[in-house]
Amino acid sequence: MKPSSKHLLTRLFSHLYIERSILDHPKTHKIRAKFSESQVIVIDHYKEVFNRSSQSFAAQSNSKKLILARKEGKFLHEGSQYSDGFEHEQFFYASSVMGCLYDCDYCYLQGLYPSANTVLFINLEDAFEQLRPYLGKDTLVATSYDTDTLAIESLTHQTREWLEFAAEYEQLHLEIRTKSANINALKSITPNSRVTLAWTLSPQEIIDRYEHTTPSLEKRLNAVIEAIALGWKVRLCIDPVIYTENFDILYPTLIDRIFSLIDPKAIEHLTLGSFRMSQNHLRALKKLRRSDVAFYPYAVSHDMATYPESIETYILEQLGIKADEYLPQERIRTWQRQ
Amino acid sequence: MIYIITALDAEARALIDHYHLTRDFTLPYTLYKNERMVLLVSGMGKTNALMAVSALLGWRIPNPADCLINIGVCGAPDAYPIGEALLIHQIFEGDRRYYPDILYPHSLRESSIKCVDGVQSVLDEYPVDMESSAMFQASARFFKLHQMAFVKIVSDHFTPETVTKERVIELIRSNLHNVDKVCAAVEKVSLSDPLFDQTEQEEIGRLKSHFTKAQASALDDALSYFRLKYPQKRLPSYPDIPDSKRERSQLLEALIKTLTH
Ligand code: SF4
């Protein structure tokens, strides 16, 4: 039972909260032009709105607002234990957007942020400045870590800016993780072999149930096919796997479906991982009482909630066996507890 | 329940008639009620508003599905026609800012408002009133931000001497259709079905009383999992509770397994 229905109650970004200091920024003008019907509310600092107490993440998810701001501090953060740095010497994630257009029940942003609204930092050039000193070494930057940047590319053009920046630095690798089908945003950009587009794929039943407002599996697969045809490096992620009673059918069928359409040789890696979350974020998710995902009897160790070891092993083994039919071991990556 | 707050008797008059509210003498404030609403007249100014709203909400603590609507008149620059109803999305008070969440479609003009200390006859760039910031502060302790709305009807262009009691009654009366719509919209976004109905909650409470705190919390989680995953299914029937601690633990384990399989 959903506390409220999942349909959008008002049009997307019906309200734009804009920091006074960037009212005249060219990017602000462009975004305002796209949302000319939206209410504009001038604020002094994004935290006035984003960090308010008494917000309801669940209610706001049905009517997301956009906050335009200038980031003052660090754009780059060290990669976390929950994600894969692919053995690069340095691994950062960039936080140029807070909040996501999509609304996945298992998303840790619900525990991380007090608001379901999106904050878009328009001074991405400062992220590049902060990154430059590190670029003498092999470095991976995940540009879509706490959000799905490609989903709002038509609004932000941040992916394009990242790609243009990456083209200049030979040691810089980017990973752009997405559930979006917005391949048009990439069509006019020359593919870069140091950039990986990583699509998260789930069975359609899981998408319908837990990944609200995201593109369908078919749309994502079509985007993957197009990206490969355009010459982009692509990684596929079946991560997080949500364990359900029909797991044995849903997920192996997904892998078959993927490789009935996509040549296994055309993808870099397939990443497999079962649901995991820090206990703090899980507690916050429970408070929202939005989804069964929050209430599964997970095993908790070292502050991380995962499926009990037997189930986690079963999930990864089953998917590993299926994936083996299509890919050599070294191209299957698995997230597993340490 | 919808909590309606006005500052003045004159602002309340048309609402009392329209919603067929009857006087209630429980609090030392002017209070009216029906089954769906309670209306409080707070008195003018921030201090009165803060005290009266706090008293009301402390007396009748809102449920998660309740909402609060402040309805009143305001002075405004002449870009805002007299009689226009504004829905407030930002309240200024000195350096402070307050933001109700507007998560529903509506047809009113939205505006910021400045909350000032006295009647204002000097031109300002924003509409002004004398209570909204205090009402927001008192209410935000009890309501989520999308469960509060501030509807202000323009009474004058910084000529407060022209605003009579009769005029205020008329201004609110001519905007009752707007008040109706805002009430319905805020009520709708505030609605949240509890996961378990009253009877289920009582049964769950009884069941949990047989277990330790940690066990009860694990049971709560499993029940929530079951209800969210299978909203159409009834909860499993109430089990016999064994006397021994060990058997009770086994029962709990089995229950959790059934609920989360
Ligand atoms: S797409 Fe990713 S960031 Fe966005 S809501 Fe889903 S899990 Fe969260």
Structure report:
The complex is a heterodimer of chains A (338) and B (261). Helix content of chain A is 33%, strand content 23%. Chain A is of the alpha/beta class and 338 residues long. In chain A, the strands form four sheets. Chain A has an eight-stranded mixed beta sheet. Chain A has a five-stranded mixed beta sheet with strand order 2-1-3-8-6. In chain A, helix 8 (184-187) links the parallel strand 10 (172-178) and strand 11. The radius of gyration of chain A is 20 Å and the shape is globular. The model of chain A is unreliable at 1-8 (pLDDT under 50). Chain B has 261 residues and is an alpha/beta fold. Chain B has two domains: 2-190, Nucleoside phosphorylase domain (Rossmann fold); 198-260, no CATH class. In chain B, strands 1, 2, 3, 4, 5, 6, 7, 8, 9 and 10 form a ten-stranded mixed beta sheet that branches. In chain B, a hairpin with a 2-residue loop joins strand 6 and strand 7. In chain B, helix 7 packs parallel to helix 8 (245-260). The mean pLDDT of chain B is 94. The chains are: A alpha/beta (338), B alpha/beta (261). The interface between A and B is medium-sized, with 35 and 35 residues. The structure holds iron/sulfur cluster (SF4). Iron/sulfur cluster (SF4) binds at residues 100, 102-104, 107, 109, 147-148, 179 of chain A.
